[in-house]
Design goal:
Layout (H helix, E strand, L loop, with lengths): L1 H12 L2 E4 L1 H16 L12 E4 L26 H9 L3 E5 L33 H8 L5 E5 L6 H7 L2 E4 L20 E5 L2 H11 L17 H7 L6 E5 L9 H16 L3 E5 L7 H16 L22 H12 L2 H14 L5 H24 L2 E5 L15 H6 L5 H6 L3 E8 L6 E7 L5 H11 L1
Parallel strand pairs: 2-3, 2-4, 7-8, 7-9
Antiparallel strand pairs: 1-3, 4-6, 5-6, 5-10, 9-11, 10-11
The chain binds glutamine (GLN).
Length: 453
């Protein structure tokens, strides 16, 4: 049914970069065989899933939305992908994304834009706009994402779906093409909180192949989603992430959601996180710094695109590298490599990267203080509903500003969820509510999310 649906609608939504119909049917058959043999399988066994094209997959291309990796078929599966296969989730294909996960609209994909199923003239969010769009257009019931600064939560918000960034270290990064290693975290996308919890359970768990993987039991996310209990829970509203700068309709749905939580027995407190004012500045120094280092491996020698400089006979390795990186990377990727190498250069290291790391610590301290008086924190996920194509592509700062509410959790390594809060009055488009929790208390996100559903 999902393959038929893809045939019917993906010509207009354009969320898949690769569809693996035959392989998915074969995996579904294997699930039936395993069941027939009496094997007890996860509740999601047989439920198909779409995988963000940042995760390596055997037998399918992994492009990361970049010309640099066009046609590359990785020789190994990401740990997350292996978990999906072990649990018996047939993989429908790979979803579109901003190149190397840099962006908030999927307009930076080298393979064209993905359209928001709610309004085909608008973006589906990013970088994981392909995953949010397949879920919202019923081309897959589940999808995977990665969230370095909001790329699971913001696409979920603008497509009326649910997305979770787990605690940093909760889900293995092995086999994810790295953007910023200290911020990257893979997580689940779905249409309901319980579906999201079930997928979270499949994806998570300790992995010796990832040095930052947490060796502790996976938080009880499914039980929390099933209980849907917020009685006595202290909900903290982050003063710096409400009101001014947020679209009125987004703010109104947020206020109503908070009232629902009160009606369900929660207590509301206001918290202040003054250092969040500097979160964007810190993030957009730390992320490019790490990205410039991670992307250095695309040197045209080991794998990926290799082109010779035009008109040069017997070019040097350096000339081939320069020509390949020029042809293989898009503008946003180049912009961040330049920013990152500049911020890390010896004369500026203390002023930029060093200062950003200090701000990162202050943000973590703000969270720690806020969690003394609240069990979870809430805010709108994104300042606006889905914007139109081209609205922000000429103004990188405008695009970056949309990440204001999502990036603090990445800087502090904390788990966060976005779930639909309703449709904004101005435009009738979905608005998102964000829930944040302390490290390894991912289950609290699901208690709140399920109570609101
Ligand atoms: N919009 C953010 C950025 O462009 C988020 C990226 C992400 O989470 N992968 O960096």
């Amino acid at each position: 049914a999902h393959l038929d649906r893809i045939d019917a609608v993906d010509e207009s939504v354009r969320a898949y970069l690769h569809v693996a119909g035959a392989a998915a049917m074969e995996q579904a058959q294997q699930v039936d065989d395993r069941r027939a043999k009496g094997e007890t399988l996860h509740r999601l066994a047989g439920v198909p899933i779409a995988v963000k094209d940042v995760m390596t997959t055997i037998g399918m291309p992994t492009t990361c939305g970049s010309r640099m990796l066009e046609g590359w078929e990785p020789p190994y599966d990401a740990t997350v992908v292996r978990h999906l296969k072990d649990a018996g989730l047939p993989i429908l294909g790979k979803t579109n994304m901003d190149e190397f996960a840099m962006g908030s609209s999927t307009e930076h994909s080298a393979y064209g834009v993905t359209r928001n199923p709610w309004d085909l003239e608008r973006v589906p969010g990013g970088s994981g706009g392909g995953s949010s769009a397949v879920v919202a257009s019923f081309q897959a019931p589940l999808a995977t994402g990665t969230d370095t600064g909001g790329s699971i939560r913001q696409p979920a918000a603008v497509t009326g779906s649910v997305g979770v960034k787990p605690t940093y270290g909760g889900v293995s990064r092995y086999g994810l093409v790295a953007l910023a290693s200290s911020l990257d975290q893979a997580g689940p996308c779905a249409r309901t909180v319980l579906d999201t919890a079930l997928l979270h359970e499949v994806m998570a768990g300790h992995d010796p192949m990832d040095s930052t993987s947490i060796d502790a039991p996976v938080p009880a996310v499914v039980a929390a989603a099933e209980r849907a209990d917020v009685s006595g829970m202290r909900i903290g509203i982050i003063r710096e992430l409400t009101g001014e700068g947020f679209q009125p309709g987004v703010q109104a749905r947020f206020d109503e959601a908070v009232q629902h939580l009160v009606d369900a027995g929660a207590e509301v407190v206001e918290v202040s996180c003054p250092s969040f004012t500097y979160a964007l500045a810190a993030y957009y120094l730390i992320l490019p710094s790490e990205a410039s280092s991670n992307l250095a491996k695309f040197d045209a020698m080991r794998y990926g695109l290799r082109v010779g400089p035009k008109g040069v006979q017997a070019p040097s390795a350096e000339q081939v590298m320069a020509a390949s990186r020029d042809a293989g990377f898009g503008d946003e990727v180049k912009r961040r490599i330049i920013l990152g190498t500049y911020a890390l250069s010896s004369g500026y290291y203390d002023a930029y990267y060093g200062s950003a790391q200090k701000v990162r610590r202050l943000i973590a301290d703000d969270f720690a203080k806020a969690f003394e008086s609240a069990d979870v924190l809430v805010s709108p996920t994104a300042p606006t509903t889905a914007f139109r194509f081209g609205e922000k592509t000429d103004d990188p700062m405008a695009m970056y500003r949309g990440d204001i509410a999502t990036i603090p959790a990445n800087l502090a390594g904390l788990p966060g969820m976005s779930l639909p809060s309703g449709l904004a009055d101005e435009d009738g488009l979905p608005a998102g509510l964000q829930v944040l929790a302390p490290a390894m208390a991912d289950d609290r996100l699901y208690s709140v999310g399920a109570a609101l559903e």
